[in-house]
Amino acid sequence: MVDWAALKPSADVQVESCRIYAKEVVAMTERRYNEVLRIAREELATAQNSAVVEQSLELGSAAAEQLGMVDELAELLQLAEDAPAALPNSSIAQRARLRAKLSALRGNDEPPFAQAVAVLRETGERFWLAATLLEQAERLIARARADEAAPLLAEARETFERLRATPWLERLERAEYALDAARVLA
Predict the structure, then answer these.
(1) Tens digit of pLDDT for each residue in 86-96?
(2) Judging by beta carbons within 10 Å of its beta carbon (0-12, 13-18, 19+), is residue 165 exposed, middle or buried?
(3) Which pTM value belongs to this model?
């Protein structure tokens, strides 16, 4: 167990960013999603450091998704957009991805994945591009649009294999299985 009391807040922006991220990562790995959300909300509301914004948005949104809390995902996105820290292109790309995911979770038939993919291609965020392609493919498979999903999965696979992103490859394999099943049922 981590002794968080021993890790006092720091005036050094980089040290503080690392401390906050460590707390979020530990809470996330221990599946304490409500705690991750709490930390993310607090940090996004006051973040002066773009790294804190990106980290808190990434982990907070994953926790909100795990809990099925669509409104909290929307809140985190708004907090990130309102954060006083200047946001780099990677954060802009991440927000585009999360807006598409939020739209899909809210039942939009045509969530703006294409827009998110375009932004991610432009910024060169290869991992998040692959993640977005996988999320888009999962959505298409669920909507009985398997033929549109296949090339997205193939492109995502290339990136995940190159990065050796095992958890994402496992998720991709589940999507490929669903794709095969959808084709058989069609």
Answers:
(1) 666 667 777 88
(2) middle
(3) 0.74
